[in-house]
């Protein structure tokens, strides 16, 4: 029996590679240490108004409560890096260019990974018959990073992202909760050492301590999750980052081993890796929904999109064109966007 289950484990990993995953690992469902870290993080209020982080109770850290009969978890990673670091730095350092987190430039990763995970589950089913399973891609209360660490895909870095010794951190994670009792991989060891580059580089100092990110200060939270007004004191620190932030990954020394993705779905759409702020700010609502179709960016909606770009325009060097662009939108904007436009204009006064 042990020989058969070990062979099945080997096959699952091979099928995963054939489906385009760069790594496949397996772990059990004991996440007690991660549960305590999550409870501490929530107790500090670092989740801001992301109520979904606690409303599911223990389902996040106890997999069988989310998917009954789960005894093993298959964890996968897929590289998404669409361009080299030099190109990213060029965009980030150009104050009139729009910087969008590189994971969001192409097709929505949820769709890409979920489809592959479903195919993997079906391939397993062909081998073993009907079994209990459920696939996840950042779509339910799942501690995906803790699971990936236990499954040997990498370790949780001081910036809270998963880092792989041979591949850096530019990758997505996905999981299959399964009723199959599979042998677990050896958990990854932490290799951050004394490095604090990610802590020091964070524009808003959101990494308040090693392995602790305060979402209330994080640009990814401010530009994506936050629905209301961006705190005034944080706006100047956001620079030209209009959707997410990659600074902690750009600075991480382990990302010198990162490889460009060969997934066409993750290639930038509509030149979003090198667009000017004014061009994006001038998109109509119809253009926004048309050009973000099938993209993770669409989830923030048009008003947040304009809000974020207004802040970035306020941080750009003063110019007549920028002031004219802001003024044109002023009278046709929602109250939320108008507030941020007025702030931006004030920066150029």
How would you sum up this structure, described in words?
This protein is α+β, with helices and mostly antiparallel strands. The protein has a domain at 2-95 and 105-178. It is built from 14 helices and ten strands. The chain has helices at residues 2-18, 32-43, 63-66, 85-92, 109-128, 144-150, 197-201, 219-225, 247-251, 277-281, 285-291, 301-315, 320-330, 335-347, and strands spanning 23-27, 72-79, 99-100, 133-136, 155-156, 162-163, 171-178, 207-209, 212-213, 241-243. A four-stranded antiparallel β-sheet has the order 1-2-7-4, sandwiched between helices. It has a two-stranded parallel ribbon with strand order 3-10. The protein is elongated, with a radius of gyration of 21 Å. The model has no long low-confidence stretch (mean pLDDT 97). It is found in: Cytoplasm.
Outline:
With 349 residues, this protein is α+β, with helices and mostly antiparallel strands.
Low-confidence stretches: none
Mean pLDDT: 97
The portion of residues assigned to helices is: 25-40%
Give the spatial strand order of the biggest sheet. Answer: 1-2-7-4
Q: Beta-strand percentage? A: 5-15%
Total strand segments: 10
Going by helix content, strand content and strand pairing, the class is alpha+beta
Rg, Å, rounded: 21 Å
Separation of termini?
Answer: 75 Å
Order of helices and strands: HEHHEHEHEHEEEHEEHEHHHHHH
The number of helices is 14
Question: What can be said about the biggest beta sheet?
Answer: 4 strands, antiparallel
Shape: elongated
